[in-house]
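It would be a great kindness if you could assist me with a short task in structural biology. I am sending you one protein, given as its amino acid sequence and as whole-number tokens for its backbone shapes. I would ask you to consider whether the tokens describe a fold that such a sequence might reasonably adopt. The full record is reproduced below for your convenience.
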Amino acid sequence: MINYILVGGVALIVGLILGTIIRKYVAESKIKSAEAEARRIIEEGIKDSETKKKEAIIEAKDEIHKMRNEAERENKERRNELKKLETRLLKKEETLDKKSEINEQREENLNKRTRKIEAREKQIEEIEERQRVELEKISGLSSEEAKNMLLDGIKKDVEHEAAIMVKEIERQAKDTADRKAREVISYAIQKCAADHVAETTVSVVDLPNDEMKGRIIGREGRNIRALETLTGIDLIIDDTPEAVVISGFDPIRREIARIALEKLINDGRIHPARIEEMVDRAKKEIDTEIKEEGEKAAFDTGVNGIHPEIIKLLGRLKYRTSYGQNVLKHSIEVAYLSSIMAAELGADVRLAKRAGLLHDIGKAVDHEIEGPHVTIGADMAKRYRESKDVVNAIAAHHNDIEPDTIEAVLVQAADAISAARPGARRETLESYIKRLEKLEEIANSFEGVDKCYAIQAGREVRIMVIPEKINDSGMVMISRDIVKRIEAELEYPGQIKVNVIRETRSVSYAK
């Protein structure tokens, strides 16, 4: 038993020793393998870094090569541009040199000609002197005596011609007096002219009850939006009992909206589809009525041969107002007044009536076309081949340009009479007088003003200055100062013409 124990202990010791030896051997083997693997990784890393280094060097060289080529190309282009500029400069320099040579040559030629002319003038003076001496010898008269004889003969001829001229001047004066008389009469009527720019921009539609307002608005406002979109106007629904306000600057659209809304109210069915249908019907009715009104106006005034488009524009004026005055009725009235005055003054009655009827035609479309109605109307008349006298009368009826004919002045006067008659427009007499007084007060407040008159219903102010205090250049300054004061202190329609007049008289007495 003891032997077995000894053998087992020995075996255990031997096993421990052998295990220790084996573990040491295995550990050494792993260490060597790890060292070999580390050396391999290090070598591969060195090889990779060298490879990347070489590649980076190659890429840098390529980039440097590209930049060098690009720089050479840019330098080449710049050199070419510089060569072109140099060539152009050389050409310009050559051209300037040639021009300088030509100018020098011309100057030399001019100097030669000047010397020749001076020499010829000297020769002519010598020849005239010799001729004068010869004439005195031949005639036996001195130059003073010959001059007196010549003047006596001329005096007789002039007296005869003066007598003939006096008769001719008297005849011309008589003709001028007749013409001036017509102009004076027209001007006297024209003095009451008045400008106008305001107009009616709203229409009111009566409702059977206030519940109708909700139906017009519709669910979430769809009905009112549809109506405003289709007609291009604004529908104002406020606290006003049993009424709806239609607002818009275009009178035709406003009238279409009014008719369509009245039809919808009478029908009772108000929805977007029905609104569209009623608006279309209203447009057709308005188009028909516009044409009929234009034809009726032309027929009533006896103006024939008007272009169909002008007829439509005349019809549109039925829905246009100015200071509450219906523009179509105003145009018809101006046509009658112009023809009556033309007949009294011996002017062209048909031209005056035609120009009077068409003078405000631009107001039919002044909400659609930019510019004053005078310019628009003249352009329309020219486009539809009205005569140049009619075009001039339209363009001149507010003094924007000078009238070329007596008929144009008559249209101005008739327009002023129609607008200024009592009740025609809404401007009160009191405000009108105050504006004239204020206008004259502003003008008289300047030093050097002698007299001042506001004419043409305040559209022009004529100022007479004292010539000893205000010179010609001072007239310009005082007119500008007066214009600035008027613009700052007055409210007025249209424009005001400031006309400064300076008169210098020379009086002598024969004793």
About this structure: The mean pLDDT is 79. DSSP finds 14 helices and eight strands in the chain. The longest helix spans residues 2-139.
